[in-house]
């Protein structure tokens, strides 16, 4: 599943091609995504100028006048910009044709993504209203995590992957950030003090920033707007490295299931 760095990489790749452009036509080839693409999108979006393309958590928000197109890439979705005469492929479900002669095209083989036309402020929509702070914002800090964790028995890895506490910390990046902070992923969230949470927040911010700079992580399905792949997987310290030496102390990396997700850690330097 594309995580926050992959979605942010997609946003940065799309923005120069779509912001400031006017929508000429919307073609919906397959409306049956995670939630149906309504006919209202094809009626309302054409003729509007795209004012901005932003991201909230793993959602992309295309602002056009008093409406927003809320998009999610699901498990293996991909957005790219191609010439308008490029033939559509088998899983190319949605085209937004622009006055530049290009189309923004959604490809989604598993159809777990979404394209929802909103006439309400996006922050009021049910998918966004309950989300926690952005991990790269000033609102996300050690004091916030420490306060949220009081009385919590859940493993800290599951805790930081809960979008109500902070958005966008997916499985790969949670394992990597906890390693950088020296915190065992199974430690109960409520048994971590403020100083360690401050280190964890800094590790999360640094891990995500490096992943964005590297264009994301390509483990199976993720491909960027330009058809290229991310490179962050080349610098992973623990994720997917079971049995290989820890880069700090050479202890074999272990794997454990936490919250039904594979978790990788060093049993010696993470406590």
Automatic annotation (TrEMBL):
Catalyses which reaction(s): 2'-deoxyribonucleotide-(2'-deoxyribose 5'-phosphate)-2'-deoxyribonucleotide-DNA = a 3'-end 2'-deoxyribonucleotide-(2,3-dehydro-2,3-deoxyribose 5'-phosphate)-DNA + a 5'-end 5'-phospho-2'-deoxyribonucleoside-DNA + H(+); Hydrolysis of DNA containing ring-opened 7-methylguanine residues, releasing 2,6-diamino-4-hydroxy-5-(N-methyl)formamidopyrimidine
GO molecular function, one term: class I DNA-(apurinic or apyrimidinic site) endonuclease activity
EC number: 3.2.2.23, 4.2.99.18
Formamidopyrimidine-DNA glycosylase catalytic domain ranges (all copies): 2-113
Residues covered by the FPG-type domain: 237-271
Positions bound to DNA: 91, 110, 152
InterPro entries cross-referenced by the UniProt entry: FPG_cat, FPG_Glyclase, FPG_N, H2TH_FPG, Ribosomal_uS13-like_H2TH, Znf_DNA_glyclase/AP_lyase, Znf_FPG/IleRS
Superkingdom of the organism of origin: Bacteria
Keywords, alphabetical: DNA damage, DNA repair, DNA-binding, Glycosidase, Hydrolase, Lyase, Metal-binding, Multifunctional enzyme, Zinc, Zinc-finger
Cofactor: Zn(2+)
Comment on bound cofactor: Binds 1 zinc ion per subunit.
Active site: 2 (schiff-base intermediate with dna), 3 (proton donor), 58 (proton donor), 261 (proton donor)
Statement: the UniProt record of this protein carries the keyword Zinc: yes
Assembly, per entry: Monomer.
Its biological purpose: Involved in base excision repair of DNA damaged by oxidation or by mutagenic agents. Acts as DNA glycosylase that recognizes and removes damaged bases. Has a preference for oxidized purines, such as 7,8-dihydro-8-oxoguanine (8-oxoG). Has AP (apurinic/apyrimidinic) lyase activity and introduces nicks in the DNA strand. Cleaves the DNA backbone by beta-delta elimination to generate a single-strand break at the site of the removed base with both 3'- and 5'-phosphates.
Similarity annotation: Belongs to the FPG family.
Protein name: Formamidopyrimidine-DNA glycosylase
Organism annotation: Spectribacter acetivorans
Gene encoding the protein: mutM
């Amino acid at each position: 599943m594309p995580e926050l760095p992959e979605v942010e990489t997609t946003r940065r790749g799309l923005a120069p091609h779509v912001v400031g452009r006017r929508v000429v036509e919307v073609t919906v080839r397959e409306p049956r995504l995670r939630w149906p693409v309504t006919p209202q999108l094809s009626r309302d979006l054409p003729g509007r100028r795209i004012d901005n393309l932003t991201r909230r958590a793993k959602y992309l928000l295309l602002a056009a006048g008093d409406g927003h197109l809320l998009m999610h890439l699901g498990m293996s979705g991909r957005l790219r910009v191609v010439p308008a005469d490029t033939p559509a492929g088998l899983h190319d479900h949605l085209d937004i044709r622009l006055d530049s002669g290009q189309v923004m095209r959604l490809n989604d083989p598993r159809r777990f993504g979404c394209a929802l036309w909103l006439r309400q402020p996006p922050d009021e929509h049910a998918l966004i209203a309950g989300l926690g702070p952005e991990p790269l914002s000033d609102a996300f800090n050690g004091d916030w995590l420490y306060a949220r964790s009081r009385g919590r028995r859940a493993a800290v890895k599951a805790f930081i992957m809960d979008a109500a506490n902070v958005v966008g910390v997916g499985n790969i990046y949670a394992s990597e950030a906890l390693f950088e902070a020296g915190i065992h992923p199974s430690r109960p969230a409520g048994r971590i003090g403020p100083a360690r949470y401050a280190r964890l927040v800094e590790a999360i911010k640094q891990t995500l920033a490096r992943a964005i700079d590297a264009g994301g992580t390509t483990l199976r399905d993720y491909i960027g707007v330009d058809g290229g792949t991310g490179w962050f997987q080349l610098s992973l310290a623990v994720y997917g490295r079971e049995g290989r030496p820890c880069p700090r102390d050479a202890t074999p990396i272990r794997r454990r299931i936490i919250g039904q997700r594979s978790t990788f850690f060093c049993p010696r330097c993470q406590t």
